[in-house]
Amino acid sequence: MPRANANGIELEYECFGDAGAPPMLMIMGLGSQMIVWPDEFCTLLAARGFRVIRYDNRDVGLSTKPAVQYTLDDMADDAAGLLDALDLPRAHVVGASMGGFIAQLLALRHPQRVASLCIIMSSTGARGSSRRSMELF
Fold first, then answer.
1. Contact at 8 Å (CB) between 52 and 15?
2. Which of 27, 76, 98, 112 shows a CA-CA span of 20 to 30 A to 33?
3. Is there a domain that residue 36 lies in?
4. pTM
5. 132 in a structural domain
6. Is residue 131 part of a domain?
7. Where in the sequence is the domain holding 107, given as residue range(s)?
8. Residue at 128 is within a domain
């Protein structure tokens, strides 16, 4: 699989679909490699007319494992850097779990890069946003 220089690190990535199709950037959650996005799912999205791009976040899989501390802001900048490396001005962005946090920060930090945003199994991270009422328990 290819690697891209992005935000001072190398990110391992993989693409599905036509290179000229609208890009869809898939951001996986904490400690999960890109392959957690199933091949079949990526292939189906590509068949719907998207260029699907999945990648390993920093410190995961085959991407760079930095020796320095980093933040979710850094990871959002990594995603923007991957779009730069692929010469893509914008993408539809999908984030799962912690990838949803990264996707939201990408939209906040680089709004011109995000054509649409889909958040799966995530939250805003605001204090109390993921608390459930006692009635549910």
1. yes
2. 112
3. yes
4. 0.91
5. no
6. no
7. 3-120
8. no
